[in-house]
Design a protein that fits this description.
169 residues; alpha+beta; two-stranded antiparallel ribbon; 12 strands; 20% helix
Length: 169
């Protein structure tokens, strides 16, 4: 079914992903656009869209809302017409109105971090809370979006996401 957006679980269960609604689409686009401009300027890696499938070492195929792989990861070795087999260095997931926060937190820890993602953000515009995941650490929780930003840290130097851009309108 090449026209459907799907993800695969470790037990080979297939999940059909529904399109996002207006607010989620706007926030995803804003995040992707800011990261695109930063990456275009610095040329430190490759950026991938929310419809890109990542075939992870655990056997799952997932598509984060945004993914970035550093040049050091050598993603060029992947076949152009296959899912990406390189684990992203950075991913971000945006909570939508139909997502349960506990399921997203589980996905962040048991899928993305467990497979080797170095830095990950879970952004919840409904509670105005951001969760920062780093390898080997408990998530850092940022509450409130006014006058706060998330940093690409040493992984993506100079990248800042103003959380105000992720607020619900």
């Amino acid at each position: 079914f090449p026209d459907l957006q799907m993800e695969r679980e470790a037990d080979w269960k297939i999940l059909i992903m529904s399109p996002v609604k207006k607010g989620s689409g706007r926030r995803e686009s804003q995040l992707h656009g800011l990261l695109f401009m930063w990456n275009n300027l610095h040329q430190l890696g490759e950026l991938f869209s929310p419809s890109t499938g990542f075939d992870l070492p655990s056997g799952v195929i997932k598509s984060p809302d945004v993914a970035w792989i550093s040049n050091e990861a050598n993603v060029g070795s992947d076949e152009e017409e296959l899912f990406v087999k390189t684990v992203p260095d950075f991913i971000a997931e945006m909570r939508s109105s139909s997502d349960r926060l506990s399921k997203l937190q589980e996905k962040m820890e048991q899928v993305w971090m467990a497979n080797g993602v170095r830095l990950a953000w879970l952004i919840d515009p409904y509670e105005e809370t951001a969760y920062i995941y780093r390898q080997g650490q408990a998530p850092e929780i940022i509450k409130g979006f006014d006058d706060k930003s998330l940093s690409g840290e040493d992984l993506m130097p100079g990248f800042e996401l103003p959380l105000k851009a992720m607020k619900r309108r």
